[in-house]
Amino acid sequence: MDDPFLPLDPLLAALDPFLAHSAATARYTHGAPRAFSFGDEGRLLWFLRSTGPTDPLDGLWVLDSATGAETLLADPRALSPEGSAGSGELPLAERRLRERTRLVAAGIGSYELSGDGLRAVFALYGRLYEVAYGNAAEPGGPRELPVAGPAWDPRPNTDASRIAYVTEDALYVTPGGRVSPDDGARWGVAEFAAAEELGRSRGHWWSPDGVTLLAARVDESALPRRWFTDPEHPELPPEDFAYPEAGGPNADVGLWVLRPDGGRVRLDWDAAAYPYVSDAGWESPEEILLTVQDRPQREVLLLGADPVTGRTRELSRTTHPLWVDPMLPGTPDRLPDGRMLTAADTPGGRARALALDGRLLTGDDLQVRRVAGVHRDRLLIEAGGQDPAEQRVLLLDPATGEVSAVADGPGVHCVQASAGALLLTSADADGIRRTLRTADGREFTPGDLSAPLPHRVVPLLERVTEHGIPTALVLPRGHVPGTRLPVLVDGYGGPGMQDVSAEPRRWQHRQWWADQGFAVVTIDNRGTAYVSPTHTHAVQGGFSRVVLDDQVAALRALGARHRDLDPTRVGIRGWSFGGYLSALAVLRRPDVFHAAAAGAAPTDFRHYDTAYTERYLGLPRDHPQAYERDALIADAPGLRRPLLLITGLADDNVHPSHTLRLSRALTDAGRPHRLLALPGVTHMTPGGVREKVMAQELTFLRAELRP
User: Fold this and answer.
1) CA 497 to chain centre
2) pLDDT tens-digit map of 574-611
3) Per-residue pLDDT tens digits for 180-233
4) What is the pLDDT of residue 686?
């Protein structure tokens, strides 16, 4: 194939062409457009995209629906002093934010538009740029702006006359200078819990008049520090960062209004009772909206704040006896007519629904997943139905509850909207298609330069057991019925994630595993997302029993239906919570699982973060038995199946100490196991590391599951 930028890894290519191609294309994402934003009343569609399937460096593009032309406005290579932006260094804070948001692309990671959508600002390896389009365009392309230090997360005000950015944990404005005080706190940033678990990755917002800033102040002085060293480079100093460990202190987060005259006003709410800020922003020059949560995440408040006095008032309150599910973006919100839109469960927890001023708008037939905005006086929503693997785009009339389809049919459909224009993304077994539909009915297709998906995979989807657990089965291409196959359970299994989906990219690697001679099984046990609130909430008070019981029950149900699955040869692999599930499986159910490859496994949730862990398990001091039951260290002496442990030594999400503690416990108990420690590798396993690990896993699983 034509590969001008990044040749295939020769060692990986010799081992397996598919893995080499997957690594070179970042799992078929290089060259695909992403990070779409509408500008100029829906006329312009801005996005990021690299120049081809093996080019890792994303540039900034715009599609003008008046002409249908796509224009590259900012090329990271042209902006790099050495002609190759890949040689630049990310500021440490931006590198960690990319980890939080799971951004694997290099080059321009993100951008922000001015109020009219004709200008964009972005940071590239610590340098700050502005670029314009159309009548606002300036000759010479992007213009570099002066900064006080390595800049990241730039945000323009309404007319882009001033740009706020962060450097060295301080908030600056250009033109101008530092606007945050030097008080030892971090300003203008999202703390770990917000970015990793609560869906808020930013920490500063301009007022609509472009004069005043709302900024987060983050005091992490009470948090314990975690350290990393690179054993490949002992000459380098270690890195450290503040980590909110379950049961311990959280960051002290406040929101402050920063006026251009230097005055400051703190927004006043009961931050001791509601410490988590999951959303914030300006509703108007006279009002700020913020969403806050209590620490158990059973209450979510939408507050209105006066930017002059800082006083707040409660606009809505969402409660749940277990926890308020965070997986419904777009709520709570105030509609243009003043009514409050919130998330709610239908009676019996059968569906995630919408409520308007407390009145349910949707019923058990829809699993609402996202509110994308208002389109033609109706709510634009993404929702599942009877089949949780699929997702539709719908219009919901808030007056009557009437629903009409914008995009449905087999697959997963998503939407963005602005001023009557829609960007629809549809994904199914035949690939991914994007359509820009203008307000006057014309259609355009943003160019996709990514490599085509190598396999057309149609997994066999079934719901099994009395709980209706979604499952998927992928068999080798050309499988001859009657041929017994070792089983590979490949999935995540944890809260906030759905594996069994009609989105095609997630099945490419499972087809590869199947073609190595496995029957690949994926199981969305109770606790996973998008089936129903009851399904999700089943793990409250403990992960291990429900998750493992459901995996075993579903596996046995599939084995009874598909006789080619060999129950005497069952392996399991996974990463993060999937790694925890894999280690859990061989430690506690060796009668069912015969080998496991466990990557980045949180082996003791007492050492995982507050917002995630406490949502499901509560505080360790209140529920010590839950944490004890879910920890794996005490199970080490009972290991009697092959176990491959994998960890990245630069993982700041699931610290490598999780894996190393389990490995030490196994060693102390005299239990043989294997340990693959990866220097410099983070939780995302970038740069083809994941494919190289897969090759190691394949060798291990083939040897341990041979007849």
Assistant:
1) 9
2) 999 999 999 999 999 999 999 999 999 999 999 999 99
3) 999 999 999 999 999 999 999 999 999 999 999 999 999 999 999 999 888 899
4) 84
Mean pLDDT of 43-59: 96
What amino acid is encoded at 464 in this protein? V
Instruction: Please tell me what DSSP assigns to residue 14.
Output: H
Side-chain-side CA neighbours of residue 695 (13 Å): 16
> CA 660, CA 675: separation in Å to the nearest integer?
9
**Tokens coding 48:** 């990021």
Alpha helices, DSSP H only, in 26-89? 76-79
Task: Cis check for the bond before 470: say yes or no (omega within 30 of 0).
Answer: no
Kindly give the pairing relationship between strand 443-444 and strand 431-437. antiparallel
Residue whose entry in the numeric block shows the structure tokens 């095609």: 504
Share of the chain above pLDDT 70, in %: 97
The tokens for 635 are 């199970």
Contact 347, 360 (CB under 8 A): no
DSSP assignment letter at 87? G
Pairwise CA distance, residues 480 & 337, whole Å: 61
Helices 17-24 and 508-515 cross at an angle (nearest 10°) of: 160
- For the chain, how big is the Rg over CA atoms in Å? 25
Q: Report the half-sphere exposure of 586 (CA within 13 A, side-chain side).
A: 30
Instruction: Please state the separation of Cα 282 from the chain's center in Å.
Output: 25
- By the 8 A CB rule, do 16 and 10 touch? no
Q: Is pLDDT above 60 for 6?
A: no
The highest-level CATH class for domain 460-704 is: alpha beta
In Å, what is the CA distance from 687 to each residue of 1, 48, 507, 610, 693? 19, 19, 20, 30, 12
User: In a 10 Å sphere around its CB, with 0-12 CB exposed, 13-18 middle and 19+ buried, how is residue 210 labelled?
Assistant: middle
The H or E element spanning position 95 is helix 92-100
CA nearest 617: which of 340, 323, 179, 197? 323
The conformational region for residue 459 under phi > 0 = left, psi -120 to 50 = alpha, else beta, is beta
- Sorted by where each begins, the domain ranges of the chain are 327-407, 460-704
Tens-digit pLDDT profile for residues 115-148:
999 999 999 999 999 999 986 556 668 999 999 9
In angstroms, rounded to a whole number, what is the distance separating the alpha carbons of residues 507 and 402?
A: 35
Q: Given a cut of 60, is residue 9 above it in pLDDT?
A: yes
CA distance linking residue 653 with residue 368, whole number of Å: 29
Q: Is residue 275 within 8 Å of residue 295, measured between CB atoms?
A: yes
Q: Is the peptide bond before 332 cis (omega within 30 degrees of 0)?
A: yes
Q: What is the pLDDT of residues 246-294, one digit of tens each?
A: 999 999 999 999 999 999 999 999 999 999 999 999 999 999 999 999 9
Residue 464's DSSP bridge partners are 469
The whole-number pLDDT of residue 137 equals 59
Q: What DSSP string describes 314-361?
A: EEEEEE-SS------TT-SEE-TTSPEEEEEEPGGG--EEEEETTEE-
